[in-house]
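name: query_chain
kind: protein
chains: 1
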Amino acid sequence: MVTEPPQPFLQRPAPMSLATPTLHTSRLLLRAFTEADTDAIFALQSNARVLRYWDTPPWKTRAQAERFIAMCGQIEQEGTGARLAIERVADGAFIGWCSLGQWNPDYRSAKLGYCLDDAAWGHGFATEAAHAVLQWAFDTLDLNRVQSEADTRNSASARVLEKLGFVHEGTLREDCIVDGDVSDTWVYGLLRKEWQRSRI
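structure:
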């Protein structure tokens, strides 16, 4: 009987850093976070109206904003994604952020997220920012699939995803509990071929 010699355990190569891009649209500048954004991100994430359908309660301390900024750099160094601050070109105002997280180069997949100040709602900024990030994701990172999620009560976020071409794939029942409030989550997916078709 002939047996094969044991094969060495194959480890994935160490992750490489992923430089946070600078993206431009007609009305927005998307860029890496800096420490100068600490107060602005704290104001955003401590706003109960903005965080109404979020998966965490509103922030209570500025230290949470400092950790968020530090995590942006860590995500970049780990090569797992990118968080981009969104500036309005007209006046340079910080209006929110958009992210591509959980990047898996083997599966060519990632998750899209975004959060905008309530004063910026209703102007198409979320769609515009997310479109720029998706363009980068599919063209530069060669992704095949991007997933995003929304609280089932957040119809505005669902509309943003649908405008971008995402397809509703299912519902996670009672998957989120924040301060005792139980909620369901819609799961959306966008495939590379769908994105390409929508750009023709």
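note: Strands lie at 23-24, 28-32, 82-88, 94-104, 109-116, 145-151, 167-178, 181-191.
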